[in-house]
Amino acid sequence: MEKAEIQKVEGYMRRTFANTSIRVVARPKKKDSAEVYIGDEFIGVLFEDKEDGDLSYNFQMAILDTDLDE
To answer: What is the reported pTM?
Structure first.
């Protein structure tokens, strides 16, 4: 993902989730995805989806059962 693209998605996620600590970071060896963090904690992966001339982004976040106990 390009830097400008990452900044747009990061801004959208910050506004949508009302959290300025969200960071979207490029992945060094992958061009179609980025990592998402809240502060220093990794929370998921953002994938770029180009299909039929349309561009969208899919955010994937795993929630472990041990996370629910906190």
So the answer is: 0.88
